[in-house]
Design goal:
The chain has 406 residues and is α/β, with parallel strands linked by helices. The protein has 14 helices and 13 strands. It has helices at residues 13-27, 46-49, 64-69, 88-93, 129-132, 146-149, 155-161, 186-192, 197-201, 208-217, 277-286, 306-320, 352-360, 369-373, and strands at residues 2-6, 33-36, 78-80, 98-101, 104-106, 110-115, 118-123, 170-173, 221-224, 231-236, 243-248, 259-263, 273-275. The strands form two sheets. Strands 10-11-9-8-7-6-13 form a seven-stranded mixed sheet. A six-stranded mixed sheet has the order 4-5-3-2-1-12. Helix 11 crosses helix 12 (306-320). The longest helix is centred in the first third of the chain and has 15 residues, at 13-27. The chain is globular and about 50 Å long.
Length: 406
């Protein structure tokens, strides 16, 4: 299987896909899958820009909306995780993962999926210690604090990933595992990024939870982005244990190292995306203690036995099938012929994919305030390709600070 890995997308799907199509033609190869390591910026319309934590001058539609609307179709199956510059309102609809657009799959805030027989796991967001042990308390519309904290990694999601026992082939994180620089060419890295040195000396460059997951899961490959430079490393797990090939890549800009194509052993194609049974079992076990306030989860209240959950999932998949539920458009799409926006939905929308997955697992919906209070929520609404008018919105306030250099 030939997999293209991309660093930070920053909404520039047209250029990334164009580069890969050119590569296929020149090299006479076939790309089976594209993986993106965050800052994907799945912005569908002007309203989504209000949930994108970037300075006002960087808020622009880019090109994802074309793939969301159906004007264009992703030429390669694409899997991505979230970074720290995302349309968080949309990704929250797909907290458990799902199709963000046809042929473009979001892995969720944490998740595992199978592509062919290759098992791919990932953790969205970046690590910030003050928010790590909090629950997912952010509500829409996001204020100046919540628009940043919503993409900060939470211990609840890491705890679920730490329950994985079966081998992982590929794992994705936006920021690097802390300490990874000890396993690669540090001198070369500091020659290009000398301001990293102090953070490395203090053990602050990267994510501690990602390092713990790396030590526990020991995947064959680990891909990251965030720091806007290419860096490779080889992690040896114990004296006689397996090794992990680590690679971080840059953002999509001319002359930057933002793409790498790798070949890994796999069954023969064609390849399809399938739910991972072990991950669905973990989701079923721990969803009842999903922390929707600032209070962290109490794992002792997760009474279901994991083996029972595994049998439950296996039976469900045999009946339902293992493919993710179909893409559903839940918001009107940007129309470049209009200079104003109208009828854009506000508040949390229940994505039919998420609802269907929770129904499959016989779990309660818990992603909105209405789920907590028992009050009715805004119903999911599916949009088709018809011309949907969009109206005027006010620009969101520019956030007070940004968590990385762009």
């Amino acid at each position: 299987m030939r997999i293209a890995v991309e660093g930070c997308m920053h909404g520039d799907l047209d250029n990334v896909y164009g580069t890969l199509l050119h590569l296929q033609e020149v090299e006479k190869v076939k790309i089976d899958l594209l993986i993106c390591c965050g800052d994907f910026q799945a912005v569908r319309n002007e309203k989504d820009l209000e949930s994108l934590n970037v300075p006002q001058k960087y808020r622009s539609m880019k090109s994802f909306w074309k793939y969301y609307s159906g004007e264009k179709t992703a030429p390669f199956p694409t899997i991505f995780i979230g970074g720290n510059h995302e349309a968080s309102n949309y990704l929250w609809e797909l907290y458990y993962g799902g199709w963000a657009a046809p042929n473009i799959y979001f892995l969720g805030f944490a998740g595992v999926i199978k592509f062919g027989n290759i098992r791919i796991g990932g953790l969205s967001g970046i690590y910030k210690a003050p928010h790590y042990y909090l629950g997912h308390h952010e509500k829409m519309p996001y204020n100046d604090r919540d628009i940043r904290s919503i993409y900060h990694v939470r211990e609840y999601d890491v705890h679920k990933l730490m329950q994985i026992q079966e081998p992982i082939d590929i794992f994705l994180s936006h920021d690097w595992p802390v300490g990874i620089t000890d396993c690669g060419n540090l001198k070369n890295l500091l020659r290009r990024k000398p301001f990293f040195e102090q953070e490395i000396l203090e053990g602050k460059l990267g994510s501690q939870p990602a390092a713990e997951l790396l030590a526990k899961l020991r995947p064959s490959y680990w891909f990251s982005a965030h720091l806007h430079c290419k860096f490779s490393a080889l992690v040896q797990h114990g004296d006689n244990g397996p090794s992990t090939r680590f690679l971080a890549l840059d953002k999509c800009l001319p002359g930057r190292q933002f793409l790498q194509v790798i070949e890994i052993e796999s069954e023969m194609g064609p390849y399809d995306l399938h739910y991972d049974e072990e991950w669905l079992a973990i989701t079923r076990k721990f969803n009842p203690v999903f922390p929707r306030t600032r209070v962290p989860a109490y794992y002792s209240d997760a009474k279901l036995e994991l083996e029972d959950c595994r049998r439950f999932v296996k039976n469900k998949i045999q009946i339902q099938g293992g493919k993710p539920f179909e893409f559903a458009r839940t918001a009107p799409c940007h129309d470049p012929s209009r200079s104003f926006a109208e009828n854009l939905p506000s508040g949390h929308i229940r994505n039919p994919q998420t609802e269907a997955l929770l129904q499959l697992l016989e779990l309660q919906y818990c992603l909105d305030a209405a789920a907590e209070s028992g009050q009715p929520s805004q119903e999911s609404k599916v949009y088709d390709n018809e011309d949907i008018p969009i109206d005027d919105i006010e620009d969101a306030d520019e956030p007070e600070e940004i968590d990385d250099d762009n």
